Amino acid sequence: MATADEIGREKQRISDRLARLDVERTRLADQLNELEITERVLTRFGGKADTAERRRGRPVRTAPAAAARSQRRARGGRPAPDVSLSDATLKAVQAYGEGATANEVMSYLTRELGMTVRPNHLGIALQRHRRAGRLENRDQKWYLPLATQEAAEQSLMTG
Fold it and tell me: Do 65 and 58 touch, CB atoms closer than 8 A?
């Protein structure tokens, strides 16, 4: 009987400790959310937040979501790309010599650069390049302007 009592006390002690740890985890997750919110506000209103990643436009994460994300990366998920959507879009159009449709650009960004891009964001980037004269749209395909295309070919031949 003494052994059963000891096991019961040990189980109770461990479950109490687990409960305390769960409360602590919840408190730390709340603090992390508050810090992320503060960081976004500071970044938006001109303050410089010192972080390794930009969190603008992302939902506030809780501790379990952050843990799942780090586990995904540990299992071989791709890290966030270092190139901007703007530069990646130009690179994708340049990769297709005979012009690229928006769907081809999107599949190139996913396949070659590992970027997940929303269609409306890609459309905005393509139109911004068109207005700036960096891209042309003919017959539903995107092309580099002839002067830009010749310069890019020259840099590939010399570099």
Answer: no
Q: Judging by beta carbons within 10 Å of its beta carbon (0-12, 13-18, 19+), is residue 104 exposed, middle or buried?
A: middle
pLDDT in tens, the chain (159 residues): 678 899 999 999 999 999 999 999 999 999 999 999 999 888 888 765 555 555 555 555 555 555 555 554 444 555 555 788 989 999 999 998 888 999 999 999 999 888 889 999 999 999 999 999 999 998 889 998 876 666 666 766 776
Give the three-class secondary structure for 50: coil
Q: Where are the domains of the chain?
A: 2-74, 85-158
Enumerate residues 6+ apart whose C-beta is below 8 A from 28.
63
- The Cβ-side half-sphere exposure at 8, using a 13 Å CA radius, reads 5
CATH number of 85-158: 1.10.10.10
